[in-house]
Amino acid sequence: MRSSKLVEKYFRTDNLPHLWCPGCSLGIATRALCAAVDELGLDKDKTVIVSGIGCSSRAVGYLDFNTIHTTHGRALAFATGVKLANPELEVIVISGDGDASAIGGNHLIHAARRNIDLTLLVFNNSIYGMTGGQASPSTPQHAKGTTAPYGVVEQPFDLVKLAEGAGATYVARATAYHVNPLIKYYKNAIAHKGFGVVETICICPTYYGRQNRSGSAVEMMQRLKEDYVLNTNYEKMPEEQRQGKKVYGEFVNKILPEYIEEFDRIIADLKGETNV
Amino acid sequence: MYKEFRLSGSGGQGVILMGIILAEAGVAKGLEVLQSQSYGPEARGGASKCDVILSEETIDFPVVREPDFFISITQDSADKHGHGLKESSVAIFDSGIDIPDHLGTKNIFVYPIIETARTKLGKPITANIITLGVISALTDIFSQEELLKAILSRVPKESEGLNKRAFHEGIKLVNRDA
Amino acid sequence: MSNRILMQGNRACVEGALYAGMRFYSGYPITPSTEIAEISAQRLPLLGGRFIQMEDEISGIAAAIGASVAGVKSMTATSGPGFSLKQENIGYAAMTEVPLVIVNVMRVGPSTGLPTASSQADIMQARYGSHGDYPIIALSPNSVRETFFLTVRAFNLAEKYRTPVILLTDETIGHSREAIVLAKPGEIEIYDRIQPAYGEEYVPYRIEPGEIVPRMPAYGRGFRYNMSGLFHSETGFPSNSAANAQESSDRLFSKIYDHVEDIVTYEEYELEDADLAFVTFGSTSRSVMAAIKKLRKEGYKVGMFRAVTIWPSPVKQIKALADRVKHIVVAEMNRGQYVCEIERIVQGKVPVSHLGRGNSAILLPEEVSERAKEILK
Q1: In chain C, pLDDT over 90 holds for what percent of residues?
Q2: pLDDT tens, C200-212?
């Protein structure tokens, strides 16, 4: 479906224009979500989108679903309650890199550990944009943020490895440039029974780009195109070609017992045994 | 009637259950009751304590301060909680205990509760029910039937016989002395 | 007599919640509230509800809010440090008007304090703990029996006024066992939030004529609306307008403060001819009650005002009290919290003093008597 049709069908058009900066890629990710929802044929009335705080989390205000803009870092925890209260709802969480992996890191690893049937979309722009460009757990080492004027000292999180290590059963990564895989991964994550995570590498020309002399939005997008290689292709590349390359693709896709199904099964067994 | 009980022993002896049974007997009799117990690190192993108030009127102040009945079946709990009793208090100890100084009362009763549990019933775990038998014989708050009923409603069906025996052994300990 | 059973305060809380229709509990274990989580974990699944032990206190309340938004009556319980951690999301529930019951079984603080000891030092935190201006309802039971009934009431008020309601109990009440007769089904009216009818035009934060709060549809019922902790207009979408923020804040406050007659409950004892009134609440009221019974026998004109609803405070009743007694003593298990509110209300009309302390020792009836005799000598 063309963008304008998607906008018409899934956006709260009265709330447009959005508040994101020119050149920001959050709109691409949000549109990709709508495309995935459309291709899956989800019922808007039965779909809930939960977000935390930050630039990415403002997406919910523009999306015509059941939407809840919660507190910083806690979107997954709110979403867990929504899903447990009514498992028929399709619950999708939109979070930023700071929201999901710094203040909300504990909820991320535990949602993954539980393998609860939620979808987490991390719109990772490597910076705290809403508050003006502070370093996040995804800001590359030595890159600058307003709270890292001499460069970030720490290693960034690899969100894919973090989610996988914590037990997520669907994990993928794409970039705002690689829109077709992005839509496919969103679809797969939403359709997946269990905890699915898709990291979307976004660009923030305003706060990340300016501090790090990353050039224009177009140049930053160009770099996504050049730097990211599909994981299966990367495997085949000779060592010298791998220099400076990063990978996108599907990294985990397996079926393990899902939290709510397990919970309900235990209770059903119990009722069968004790006839309560 | 307003009576305060302080039951003490060591963790795992069923002291809390003893207090709950006493309180439930009170509830069944239409009395006002309040039961509380020690929590936290002090409740794991070491001395365990359970307080019960039985009253014909509303229980306002919810804490046992001057127990009318103090019961202790281990040395540790006797040393820790066996003080500050009033002159009219009744103190009941297992015979293996050196009675603490400064108990505050001279109404002291000593019975071989632990030994009876071990040798006569072959189950140290029955010490709490034997103690309830002792309490039953020494007090006139409940009839034997009332207390036994409260015990049987709390213990597993398969151990009813054992608990009945334990209760009656406790009564016998008192009556033998009398 | 067979309905009369022995029950622990924390269990009575869960039984009250289930009676009121709680079908979701999320929380994190913390002494002395843990039994509430344990018993919920045991009981809820058998009643078609769900329980989840979350990874921390913050997610404990967050999941409960989420479940409430999805249409299920929810509760979380905590103590001391956990109550501090939950504060941000209490403000969120107040701002977004999500019905929710938060139980705080008070223990001695600050910090880890005395985890297994009783206290009443979270009175002001219950009122002002989250940032910003918001109203709250807080209820405080003084017995196992009242814990049951007040938990039911906490849910009813939460649903009726679309607000978080805090049940402030304490270690003494939470851990004691007393005799109780639980209400039979149908004996207490249960209030459920009003949802918009299917197909009806729905503006998320608009109040229908004759109603107190906006209608609240469960997610999935066809009303796709937005909820946000940002100040929002009646559309539910964020608004930066100062005028809107003022109007929204006014409405949050007025929905509670215009209905204090409905929300505030209290108990008066021997106040008719009293020269001295003890204002108290929760377990401390039992020390005061014991003392007053004794003092009355000795001829002292003392009485007790027990706040059952702590917040909003019983302003009208305390003002009236100040008109008829000569002294007020606020007895509470802390170093002086509710006394600040009572002083504020009394405005110097009669002397107001405080009786309490910062450790775990419950006030003794003799201490209450001693203070009374000092004042009335």
Answers
A1: 97
A2: 899 999 999 999 9
Residue in chain A lying closest to C51 (CA): A84
Minimal Cα–Cα distance from C21 to chain A, Å?
Answer: 13
Confidence category of residue B43, pLDDT binned at 50, 70, 90: low
User: What's residue A276's pLDDT?
Assistant: 47
Chain B residue numbers with beta carbons less than 8 Å from the beta carbon of C179 are 26-27, 31-33
CB C152 within 8 A of CB C190: yes
Residue A71 neighbours by CB distance under 10 Å: 23
* Cβ contacts of C231-236, under 8 Å, gap ≥ 24: C231/C95, C232/C205, C233/C205, C234/C203, C234/C204, C234/C205, C234/C206, C235/C203, C235/C204, C235/C205, C236/C204, C236/C205
Residues 58-117 of A with CB under 8 A from C: 60-61, 64-71, 74, 76-86, 88-89, 106-107, 109-110
Q: Is the pTM of this model over 0.95?
A: yes
**What single DSSP character describes residue A252?**
E
Q: Tokens for C39?
A: 């018993």
Do the two chains A and B touch, given a threshold of 8 Å on CB pairs and at least 3 pairs?
no
Strands C266-269 and C302-307, by their bridges, are antiparallel
Cis-peptide into A17, omega within 30 deg: yes
All structural domains of chain C, each given as residue ranges with its CATH number in brackets, are 4-181 (3.40.50.970), 265-376 (3.40.50.920)
Q: Is the Cβ–Cβ distance between B148 and B160 less than 8 Å?
A: no
**Interchain CB contacts (distance < 8 Å): B and C:** 64
The residues facing B109 across adjacent strands are: B92
Domains observed in chain A: 3-274 (3.40.50.970)
User: What digits encode the pLDDT tens for the residues A216-272?
Assistant: 999 999 999 999 999 999 999 999 999 999 999 999 999 999 999 999 999 998 887
| Of the candidates B151, B65, B50, B54, the residue with the CA atom closest to the CA atom of residue C179 | B54
Q: Return left, alpha or beta for A32; rule: phi > 0 is left, psi -120 to 50 is alpha, else beta.
A: alpha
**CA B12 distance to own-chain centroid:** 14
> What are the DSSP E strand ranges found in chain A?
47-51, 66-69, 90-96, 119-124, 170-175, 196-201, 228-230, 246-253
ipTM of the modeled complex: 0.97
Which residues of chain C make contact with B26, given a CB cutoff of 8 A? 179
Nearest Cβ partner for C70 among A61, A76, A89:
A89
C349 pLDDT band, cuts 50/70/90, is very high
Edge to edge, the sheet with strand A228-230 lists A228-230, A246-253, A170-175, A196-201, A119-124, A90-96, A47-51, A66-69, C226-228
The domains of chain B, with CATH numbers, are 2-177 (3.40.920.10)
